[in-house]
Give the backbone structure.
Amino acid sequence: MQRNIGRMFLLLLILLSSVLEPKLSIAQNLSIFHHLSTNRDSISDIVIASTFPHNPESFTQGLVYHKGYLYESTGLNGNSSLKKIEIESGRVIKEIKLGEKYFGEGLAILNNKIYQLTWKNQEGFIYDLNTFREIRKFSYSGEGWGLTTDGKTLFMSDGSSTIFLIEPELFKIVGKIEVHDKNKIPVTNLNELEYIKGEIWANIFTEAIIVRISPQTGNVLGWIDLRRLYKILPNQGRRDVLNGIAYDQEGDRIFITGKHWPELFEIKIQNLNQN
């Protein structure tokens, strides 16, 4: 009798734990694509419009298009830099190196200034857009991952499901966006950011996908499948994860690359639906 009661108590504990167990974030699932197909989320495909050379030595952490050129922030201690790049040739027009203690991260251009984050130093840089002269440093708490702007406010990610709204002059947090899917499951590992047509697009660390986010609500508006890019990258040489989104607003062009990728892709999105 006591043994049966013990077994019943154990079963009750198991049932309670399954009910009370918190929902995993999307990035904690074994396969994000499995989760999305099960959830019947809207996933857009891509078409590759053009391919351009990209330096395979670049550990891309931030990517911005501005007036015909790409601006790139690269990471790794001792190899971090800020570059201005000619798209067609991949030629570096201007470059500055960060100190060895810095690991370069996200990048944004606002009011003729370049803002560059670092990973764990809790310190970033503001440069003159034309000369790359350092204007000043700024500080923040936690890690710096991605950075973008809507033309007024800066948006920063730190690898969690939160995007921080930053006042650019003092680099002060003025708001937060908690990113979640239609079932209110948090979307974590938000990495490189880009502001596109009123939405925030984000790479998800280690995943071949872009998540489209509403800046007003944090709702996921849709997903973009980038697995096609991995299939056409050269097999030889080293290549790391997808990371880098840049948008040419005037030409309505979207550029994608990754860490140590030998190519930069201009892509077009098919079936850009919303959840």
About this structure: Residues 8-30 have pLDDT under 50 and may be disordered. The chain has three helices and 20 strands. The longest strand covers residues 43-53.
